[in-house]
Design goal:
Layout: H1 3-14, E1 25-28, H2 38-43, E2 49-53, H3 61-75, E3 78-82, H4 85-91, E4 94-97, H5 107-114, E5 118-122, H6 125-133, E6 138-141, H7 157-166, E7 171-174, E8 191-196
């Protein structure tokens, strides 16, 4: 686990401001690059972050989700489930939207009534607008830097990322190629949180 990234998250959490109390460090699960995310989740600092549970199509997704929900409760972490409000509700978790879109018409009011965390992915201004309208509290703007998850994709780079983040209308987190060095290339006034796979493995 990247010690410099952990230090960045602790410093961000200690700063006063409207983002105070927001999880600063997010582990993204990935069935190929991190088949079992439980050990990494157990190493996340207590009360400092969260887990975005993906593992789409995994045959044991529900069971793995239950294990992660237990770990998150024990370590005071926030759990959000990507693209599946029903599983999220069963786990007592929040929802991670894909590009600001709810997968079911009834999901948004249901999640709002439960006061659970809603996050979203976003890659451009349109998706940032959709995330804001969908009620997301935090948008993961990506890819900030070149990333192994999408080796052929074009990265936003720090200047474009910061420009989009300033105009987002909601808090933004950096995702894509994030580690203890790259996170410091993004303005702390804009970057509310960080998401990673490899740096938090």
């Amino acid at each position: 686990m990247d010690a410099r990234l952990l230090a960045w998250a602790r410093a961000a959490a200690a700063r006063p401001g409207p983002a105070r109390g927001l999880p600063r460090l997010w582990l993204f699960t990935d069935a190929q690059r991190m088949p079992d995310p439980r050990p990494s989740a157990m190493r996340l600092p207590r009360g400092l972050g969260g887990v975005v549970f993906r593992h789409d199509g995994a045959p044991d997704r529900a069971a793995l989700g239950r294990d992660l929900a237990g770990i998150c409760r024990a370590r005071r972490l926030v759990l959000v489930v990507a693209g599946d409000p029903r599983l999220a509700a069963a786990l007592g978790a929040g929802v991670h939207l894909r590009a600001g879109r709810w997968p079911a018409a009834c999901a948004r009011p249901f999640m709002r009534e439960g006061r659970r965390m809603v996050t979203s992915s976003a890659h451009d201004p349109k998706e940032l607008r959709l995330a804001r309208r969908a009620g997301a509290r935090l948008a993961f703007l990506s890819p900030a830097f070149p990333t192994a998850s999408h080796p052929d994709g074009a990265a936003l780079g720090p200047i474009r990322w910061a420009s989009l983040g300033r105009l987002a209308g909601l808090r933004v987190a950096a995702l894509g190629g994030i580690d203890g060095d790259t996170i410091r290339r993004l303005p702390r006034q804009v970057c509310a949180a960080a998401g990673a796979i490899t740096a938090l493995a």
